[in-house]
Amino acid sequence: MLPETPHRSEATVEETPTADAGPAGHGGRRRVAAWAITALAGLLVLVALTAPNQLTRLTPAAFLRIPLEALATVAVLLVLPPWPRRVVAGLAGFTLGLLAVLKVADMGFYGAFDRPFHLGVDWVLFDDAAGFVSDSFGRTAAIGAVVAAVLLVTAVPVLLALSVLRLTRLVVRHDVTARRSVAALAVGWLVLAALGVRIVPDAPVADSSATALVYDHARQVRAGLQDRKTFAAELADDAFGNTPADQFLTALRGKDVIVAFVESYGRDAVEDPEFAPQVGAVLDDGDRRLRAAGFASRSGFLTSPAMGGGSWLAHDTLLSGVWIDNEQRHRALLASDRLTLGTAFRRAGWRTVGVMPAITQDWPEGAVFGHDRLYDNRNLGYRGPTFAYAPIPDQYTLSAFQRRERPEADRRPVMAEIALVSSHSPWTTIPRLLDWDSLGNGRVYRDATAATEKPQQGVRGDATTRARAGYRRAIEYSLSSVISYVERYGDDDLVLVLLGDHQPTPLITGEGATRDVPITIVSRDRAVLDRIAGWGWQEGLRPGPQAPVWRMDTFRNRFLTAFGPHPGTAPGRPR
Fold first, then answer.
1. Cα torsion for 344, 346, 350, 351, to the nearest 10°?
2. Cβ-contact 427, 463 below 8 angstroms
3. Distance, CA of 232 to CA of 255 (rounded, Å)
4. Is the bond into 543 cis (omega within 30 degrees of 0)?
5. How far apart are CA 305 and CA 323, in angstroms?
6. I need a labelling partner for 260 at 20 to 30 A (CA). Which of 169, 175, 409, 503 fits?
């Protein structure tokens, strides 16, 4: 590379035809191609610098900004000697490529979980994402997604490094013009920043978003490191950790207690005008039917630590009584001896089981949650088809649980944690509610016309409209399955805790949705509901807008307190 001069440089051979370049037409084409490649490199760098990290903000106007980082980088490159300049340009481009990959990861996480990607703890979720794609769309789609992700992570940084190197050669060739342009743009940037000029909200024309993004993620990692000590103290501070076994759950002795999580059953399902009329009709009809069978119910809301996905975080939080909103906290819980709701039931004499139809491998959470036995995809005896992501229909899951754990009266009471997954995205294929006696081993679901519904077919509108229609129908099916189960198999000794794990993705709820999920307790024994009279929960299966809202991590302590010994009462005995 030649010294800074407005004359020739190493870029000349690429951007102007040589004397032996051939006919004039051929040289002209080479010149046009060279400038086209340079323009494409500039566009790529500009997009990488100014692109927002959320898909909802990805509009053409969002790119109409002056990135401070570009001005600073050009200024530095102009004063460096040739060899260091090439090194700095390559590193700057490669770093910009990594930043672009980070923005894509943020887009995905905002779209799925309504939060940015966490550099410290979220890597494990990519394996879960590949499994979701495989289960929902097939192995070929999963392989394609993995290949695309690998290409993105490897190719984008290299491509941006080459782009910055090419632009650097152009800048050096026209260094006088470049210096003047940088000075003028820097003055303009300061003026625009002082005036706060914006073309679109949250996107000032005087842009420094790349630096802010790096800072935010660095702060996120630092906060994660500090949170390890904070969370360790929270785990150790357990008001019920040393409670004697005979003091647990005395008001529920002899009851079968089911804690059923309905996938993606969020507050929007009962309040959004597009869902509430139909979902509300299912709940209201179920309430009438259950009342006729002697049952009563109380409902409220819990604020989940998860959004759009991460069901295990909600299970962790509800059962352990501590707030678990990321993988780091999840792993810390697994390594702890924290008392969970299932462990309390087991100590008090219940047989405890987990029913997890989507689990296909060893599940260490089972031991933490106090399960004596785990039923998963491998031992529920299902021989039917899968339904998009959901491997087993909810009605079959409940039927298999009933056959295995509640077949007769002369037995120990059971406490079950059940995950109902038919309402898991992508909501393209869902089961129909069938006669309970017809379920058998699930082969009945192979009759597509009788047992399968494709709720998105025939729905007019874009992909979001079809997804919302599928979500609504899936929630209706899951709730109908639970209501029908209680109606068919419920008795005086059944207590059902029914709740959502989290709201669906922002694709369904839109931006700004709460993280609240409905929760309901159903029982035929009025004494059970009298124990929670002070909670202020509303009657019925559907909580209204004024129903109380608690953080999900407060439920364990409230539940153990409500159903523990009250003054003047004696502990009962498990049957």
1. 140
2. no
3. 34
4. no
5. 7
6. 409
**Cα separation of 357 and 374, whole Å?**
10
What H or E segment, with its residue span, contains residue 94? Answer: helix 82-113
Q: How many CA atoms lie within 13 A of 35 on its CB side?
A: 7
- CATH assignment, 262-562: 3.40.720.10
Quick one: CA dihedral 515, 516, 521, 527, positive or negative?
Answer: positive
Q: To 10 degrees, what angle do helices 139-173 and 175-195 make? A: 110
**Hey, what's the torsion of the CAs at 329, 332, 334, 335, to 10 degrees?**
180
The residues of the chain that CATH labels 3.40.720.10 are 262-562
Q: What is the tens place of the pLDDT at every residue in 287-312?
A: 999 999 999 999 999 999 999 989 99
Q: What is the dihedral of CA 275, 280, 281, 283, to 10 degrees?
A: 130
Residues contacting residue 235 through CB under 8 Å, at least 6 positions apart: 322, 332, 333, 336, 338
Place of tokens 């089981």: 353
Direct distance between the N- and C-terminal alpha carbons of the chain, in angstroms, rounded to an integer: 88
The number of angstroms, rounded, from the C-alpha of 196 to the middle of its chain's C-alpha atoms is: 34
Is 261 in a helix, a strand, or coil?
strand
**Distance (Å, rounded) from C-alpha 541 to C-alpha 478?**
14
Task: Render pLDDT for 122-154 as a digit per residue (tens, 0 to 9).
Answer: 777 776 666 666 666 667 876 877 788 888 888
Q: What is the DSSP letter of 268?
A: H
Crossing angle of helices 139-173 and 125-137, in 10° steps, is 130
Per residue in 510-534, pLDDT (tens digit) is: 888 999 999 999 999 999 999 999 9
- How do beta strands 549-551 and 206-207 pair? unpaired
CA distances from 411 to 109, 212, 255, 481, 496 (A): 46, 61, 11, 25, 19
Interhelix angle 82-113/139-173, rounded to 10 degrees, is: 150
Written as one string, the DSSP assignment of 102-113 is: HHHHHHHHHHHH
Structure tokens at 257: 């207690």
Which residues make Cβ contacts (< 8 Å) with residue 442, sequence separation at least 6?
A: 381, 382, 383, 384, 392, 393, 396
Question: Is the Cβ–Cβ distance between 485 and 258 less than 8 Å?
Answer: no
- pTM (two decimals): 0.84
Helices of type H across 321-430: 327-334, 341-347, 365-368, 394-405
Could you tell me if 455 and 430 are in contact, meaning their C-beta atoms sit under 8 angstroms apart? yes
